[in-house]
Amino acid sequence: MRIAFYAPLKSPSHGTPSGDRRVAALLMQALAQGGHRVELASTFRSFDGQGDPARQAGLRAQGEALGRQMAQAWRDGPAAAQPELWVTYHVYYKAPDWLGPVASAALGIPYVIAEPSHAPKRAHGPWAIGHAGTEAAIRGADLLLPPARYDIECLEALAPRERIVWLPPFLDSGLHVAARAQRATHRAALAAQHGLDPARPWLCTVAMMREGDKLASYRALAQALALLRETDWHLLVAGDGPARAAVEAAFADQPAGRVRFLGALSAVQLAAVYAASNLYVWPAVNEAYGMAPLEAQAAGLPVVSCATRGVPDVVCHGRTGILVPSGDAPAFAAAVRSLLEDPDLRARYGTAAAGFAAGERTVEAASTLLEGALARLGGARPHAA
What we know:
The protein is α/β, with parallel strands linked by helices.
């Protein structure tokens, strides 16, 4: 099948690395693995981060016009080049899909949204236009593929349950599996490079450093780890961004040399950090789910995080890690302590984490699930023009 793929928040070809860009590329990979010809339809970005109604209205006009132009160009071209399906990744009130509904309706092809997000509280306010566009797209979609089960209830208010299929987060774990096999080598190299004590347990975390939820997560982590000052550990922090000074300030009370800031790393370097560490820690304040915890598990790390939003869909509490209530610093610290002080439990969780990522959360598993979901479409056509 010929598939037109589009990501309104951040194209998989965008120049700035991010989890969103990575997931978009993984979704294209999973579709291609099913034997489909997947082509990026557009790099048009509909994102409005400021809540500017005039900007949203302008983006809507541009996007809808572009969708019509694309459909006309396909109709005027050879039939063999026309898409048979439109898939949009990650639609929400700040980044609605103005292209897909228009183009798919004009072409008479099914319209699919992967990672749709519906936030009723945004119906009124500075993002009302983006919210309305997102709601219309979700109502009109032939198939919705949420990655987090907690999203399904909100989606059921807009679409029949039979049009909603849970597509859990997944990854291509090759780098992480390979790094895990070289754990001793990576640990020795990082110890030498950053002056780390290889006899201590190493915690690690991976996240961009920006204002908002990421900074809140870093501060929550610092608050929890402040309760473990008397416990022996190193923390390796991979990430960078405009809030780096604030992140470093959050950990300033820790003893000298305990926290190491590694900066922005490549995928290969990150895999080495995961593999060399003993435990992944991240409070995940207001995160949809998070790819880093899944990557850490693929490298054999247990995870301590919070049971919020979609995190339970990437970390299996009591099997691959420990999830605590969001905002509970003492509980987070206790979970970290329990795994630091029990190497056998940590090892069991780590082994289970690697198996979970390698078995249930692979591109192959996602491709199989996608094929089953797409088979439901049959002769479906968009429900909204």
